[in-house]
Design goal:
The chain is α/β, with parallel strands linked by helices. It contains 7 helices and 7 strands; from the N terminus they run αααβαββαβαβαββ. The protein is globular. The N and C termini lie far apart (about 40 Å).
């Protein structure tokens, strides 16, 4: 999927009214209305603009193969699940604290990934070990870069702890991070378990955002 940015200096869409909105809310809404990825997602039926991030990562690294089992952690609202199915995954199981509207071909459950009891349930729903574990999760941000970086790194480490015991041999792992230095330690840890480890910032990721994605393939097993 390719999205062309809007041209010209003037915004294509302007707010009709600012009544009842803070200045921050107005800025966010204005950005959403004029975001070409948001517009494309609405036009093409994707649950969120984040669908383009996974599509771009898959175009580059060929993560999703026909017939694979995919586990989508923090799946709401479902954009990554949609992409995995559209690109040939045989079965996708998604889990999130928030409810997710049904997606044909996917099993979506509301629950906490930190609950260890969920592990067997997820594997049972998948029908085997996942070939690919995805996570586009991010914590609520504070606006303080150092604090936000610590929070997302803790979440990413938790995601990796969930993925490594259940991932199929040769499998892949994709997880969101924030730039800030500490991600280097996680990359080194990943290199102990995966043959190839990269980090990438897909075009759909906003330029001003510090987010990036770690893409690990060729799972060799958890380090002993």
């Amino acid at each position: 999927m390719t999205v062309k940015p809007l041209g010209g200096r003037d915004e294509a869409v302007k707010l009709r009214t600012s009544r009842g909105r803070t200045s921050a809310q107005q800025r966010w809404l204005r950005r959403q209305l004029n975001d070409p990825y948001v517009q494309a997602a609405q036009r093409e039926g994707w649950r969120s603009r984040a669908a383009f991030k996974l599509s771009e990562l898959d175009d580059r690294y060929h993560l999703i193969r026909k017939g694979m089992l995919v586990l989508d952690l923090g799946a709401a609202p479902g954009g990554w699940t949609q992409v995995a199915l559209q690109r040939g995954a045989a079965r996708v199981v998604g889990i999130d604290l928030l409810p997710i509207e049904p997606i044909a071909g996917a099993t979506l459950i509301q629950g906490d990934i930190m609950d260890k009891a969920r592990e067997e349930e997820l594997l049972g729903l998948l029908g085997g070990k996942p070939d690919l574990v995805l996570s586009d999760m991010a914590p609520n941000t504070t606006g303080h870069a150092a604090t936000d970086h610590i929070r997302i790194m803790a979440l990413a480490e938790l995601t990796l702890e969930i993925a490594t015991p259940i991932l199929a041999e040769g499998g892949g792992f994709v997880c969101k991070l924030f730039q800030g230095g500490a991600e280097r330690g996680m990359l080194e840890r990943l290199k102990q378990s995966f043959r190839v480890v990269r980090h990438a910032k897909p075009p759909a990721s906003r330029k001003e955002s510090s987010e990036l994605y770690v893409v690990a393939t060729g799972f060799r097993g958890a380090p002993t």
